Amino acid sequence: MTKLIGIYGASGFGREVMPTAREQYSDAETEFVFIDDSDSRASCNGYDILSWDKFLDRTAADRSVAIAIADSRTRKILTDRCLQAQIAICEIRSNSISQGDAIKVGEGAILQPFVTLTSNIKIGRSFHANIYSYVAHDCTIGDFVTFAPRVMCNGNIRIEDGAYIGTGAIIRQGTPEKPLVIGAGATVGMGAVVTKDVPPGATVVGNPARIMEKK
Questions:
Q1: Separation CA 160–CA 183 (nearest Å)
Q2: Transmembrane stretches, by residue range (predicted)?
């Protein structure tokens, strides 16, 4: 009987995640598809694109989903949809990642090639770490956090739920007594160098990173 794995999202990141998923799970009994409710194409890169309803209708003995969508709010909505339908959320983990000791990663993580997790790290649900990102020692990361490529998250940092860290951002190391905090729903811009706490919901850019004022 067929095992069905759906990559939710047929856009750029979903297409990057598909080869990682195939590398991890592929066998003669596994079928891979994209799930996308807004893409009218029948297929992409040789894989069927199904709506959510058609994914549920597809014959399979077992089915699971990886949600390859960067927006944390959308990712949470789709995670809840899967759980309500009793569809498992699978982890996607490249064979090339480096992982040390005492690391806990929540359900539904996507860890792309050359990600590094050093030691004594706690990560919540549905974490995305894109290529060449790292998380150093004694960091705590909440649910639905997104790292774009080459994020440098140094030691003793706390990143709260739903934060987005842009490509090439550097987050300065905190201390055990005072971790550097990225607040819930905050956005760290591409290439930003974060040297102090970021308030919840704020967007910071530049070197050193400063709050971008709304116009």
A1: 5
A2: none
Q: What is the rounded radius of gyration, in angstroms, for the C-alpha atoms of the chain?
A: 18
How far CA 27 is from CA of 16, 17, 56, 69, 213, in Å, comes to 19, 17, 21, 25, 51
Domains and CATH numbers, the chain: 3-90 (3.40.50.20), 93-208 (2.160.10.10)
Q: What would the pLDDT profile of 72-124 be if each residue is shown by its tens digit?
A: 999 999 999 999 999 999 999 999 999 999 999 999 999 999 999 999 999 99
Give rounded-to-5 percent helix, strand, coil for the chain: 15, 35, 50
Q: What is the pTM of this model?
A: 0.94
Q: Which of 137, 148, 153, 157 is catalytic?
A: 137
CA–CA dist 33, 62 (Å, integer): 14
β-pairing verdict for 180-182 and 187-188 = unpaired
Q: Is 128 noted as a catalytic residue in this protein?
A: no
| Residue 193 · residue 207 · CB < 8 Å | yes
Q: Is 136 a residue whose pLDDT tops 90?
A: yes
pLDDT band at 50 (very low <50, low <70, confident <90, very high): very high
Q: How confident is the model at residue 215 (pLDDT cuts 50, 70, 90)?
A: low
